[in-house]
Write a structure and sequence with these properties.
Layout: H1 2-63, H2 68-141, E1 153-154, E2 162-164, H3 165-177, H4 181-194, E3 197-198, E4 201-202, E5 205-207, E6 213-215, H5 220-237, H6 243-257, H7 276-293, H8 296-312, H9 332-342, H10 344-349, H11 354-365, E7 366-372, E8 378-384, H12 400-419, H13 423-441, E9 445-446, E10 456-457, E11 481-482, H14 483-494
Antiparallel strand pairs: 1-11, 2-5, 3-4, 5-6, 7-8, 9-10
């Protein structure tokens, strides 16, 4: 399935490029034809003028207004010019016929190419659906039956059996959307009854097999995402058994927020930096919690975070989204999550342009790279880097997760403009989403582990063990499956926004 999808996706991309070249050729032929027709018109006008001049000269000869020799000389010149003009018009007419034939032939080829493209697109849709179903199964079968946790990376021995908190939250959202509520409950039960906390928050990673800590770092973002996952579950099932856990997380981050007079949220209880990413997460989480509980304390805390974002994240026109307070580094996920967490409508109300945010992200972070598939095939793919590629010596690297986030944001933009009845712009963003999703599917790999059973998943990035530009390296291994990348690809495919509650 994976190989067939990759092959079909590549054929589809090739056909689209071929049709694009045909369109360019057609535009060129139409332009040439228009130019020739203009030349014919000018030549005929000039010929008509020459014929008028010949008539006038004939009259002058009859009236003997000039010497006979002079009249004959001028008459000969005009007749020669008239013959040249006839020859020119004849040649232009032949060129026009040839151009029309070429244009007609090209249009026929376009019809055939469009029909082939339609067949390929239908085949790709079927294969894509089957592959994404297999990707979901890859996630599901990796859930540990004792702890409910799922290992974050399949293939990197240095972090084997690590379950990162952020990844568990994404998995919980996927399970909830697939109505696997018992599996979701199993995961949440670990955090409700078993998971160790440090400084009031859950740590960033646990061992899958027994749930013991694999590192003791505590950050706000992963905790917030666990809260988001709980709210998505609560909203869909109306089961409030874990709502208290989400509220505990909210009170914990509000306590950290209270330590900053500007209302921003630090990266964690023992760090001094402020990240846009964590504040966007918190804004979405607190608004979601308010919608479910109608408790205004969460709304007030969200409003304070929004004020902080306006002051520290969206305060420069040359860089639409800063990575954090006093940090103008470009991080692609903050662009995607600005659309997902705040939404195009809220951004407009704040005087910010969602179109400019998306354009800047694509212009600055979109890259085209060689991707070495595990079977040895090297393909050319487009996607989004972790940062502005021009600022990194390593060259372009595609982040599968962040590319999927951008696909989802393109879909959000398309839906926004559909509601506004701006169908041209909606189509523009939908096409962007489709194109980048097609590129992402070409990076799906087959699970190489016995437990994975050959099902598809996505790697974390197009290259292993390289600098993301944000303080960590991509996992090791060219066949390492990533839970976060696979989860977010599922979100992108199904059009599910985890940072917003569906009605």
């Amino acid at each position: 399935l994976v190989k067939e999808l990759v092959k079909t996706a590549q054929n589809l991309e090739s056909r689209r490029m071929s049709i694009a070249r045909m369109d360019e050729e057609k535009e060129s032929l139409v332009s040439k034809l228009s130019n020739v027709q203009g030349q014919i018109k000018d030549a005929r006008t000039e010929k008509a003028g020459l014929e008028m001049e010949l008539v006038r000269l004939q009259l002058a000869m009859e009236r003997k207004e000039f010497e006979e020799e002079e009249l004959q000389r001028r008459n000969k010149e005009l007749e020669t010019l008239n013959k040249k003009m006839d020859f020119l018009i004849e040649g232009l007419n032949r060129e026009r016929v040839i151009l029309k034939e070429e244009l007609s032939s090209l249009k026929e080829k376009e019809v055939v190419a469009a029909e082939t493209l339609l067949v390929l697109d239908e085949k790709r849709s079927e294969l894509e659906k089957a592959n994404f179903e297999q990707m979901y199964q890859w996630l599901e079968i990796h859930q540990n039956p004792r702890t409910g946790l799922m290992m974050s990376f399949e293939g990197d021995s240095s972090i084997a059996n690590w379950a990162f908190l952020y990844d568990q939250a994404l998995v919980a959202c996927v399970l909830t959307q697939h109505n696997q509520f018992k599996k979701t409950q199993k995961l949440f039960d670990f955090f409700k009854y078993q998971a160790e906390k440090v400084n009031g928050g859950f740590i960033n990673a646990y061992y899958v097999n027994d749930g013991s800590p694999s590192e003791y770092i505590v950050h706000c973002g992963p905790n917030i995402w666990l809260g988001i996952a709980i709210l998505q579950y609560t909203n869909k099932t109306e089961d409030k058994r874990y709502l208290g856990l989400a509220q505990d997380i909210a009170h914990w981050i509000i306590g950290i927020q209270s330590e900053d007079r500007e209302g921003g949220l630090r990266g964690g209880p023992k760090v001094s930096w402020f990240a846009t990413e964590h504040n966007l997460d918190a804004y979405a989480f607190l608004n979601m919690l308010y919608k479910i509980t109608q408790d205004t304390q969460y709304l007030k805390a969200a409003d304070r975070i929004l004020a902080w974002l306006i002051q520290h994240t969206y305060d420069r026109s040359d860089i639409p989204v800063k990575r954090g307070r006093g940090d103008s580094t470009i991080a692609t996920d903050t662009y995607a999550w600005s659309i997902a967490a705040l939404g195009p409508q809220k951004l407009e109300e704040l005087g910010l342009s969602s179109n400019e945010i998306m354009k800047f992200a694509e212009d600055t972070c979109s890259v085209e790279v060689n991707f070495s598939r595990p079977d040895g095939e090297i393909i050319r793919v487009r996607g989004f880097d972790f940062a502005a590629q021009r600022n990194l010596a390593r060259g372009g690297v595609i982040s599968c997760e962040w590319s999927a986030q951008m696909v989802l944001s393109f879909k959000i933009m398309a839906d926004f403009y559909k509601e506004k009845r701006d169908y041209l712009r909606a189509q523009f963003y939908q096409q962007k989403a489709d194109d980048y999703l097609n590129q992402l599917t070409q990076m799906i790999i087959s699970s190489s582990s016995p437990s994975g059973q050959g099902r598809g998943c996505l790697p974390y990035a197009s290259d292993d063990y390289v600098d993301t530009g944000h303080g960590w390296m991509t996992p090791k291994g060219d066949s390492t499956g990533s839970v976060s990348a696979t989860c977010y690809a599922l979100f992108a495919y199904y059009g599910f926004n985890p940072l917003s509650l569906e009605e």
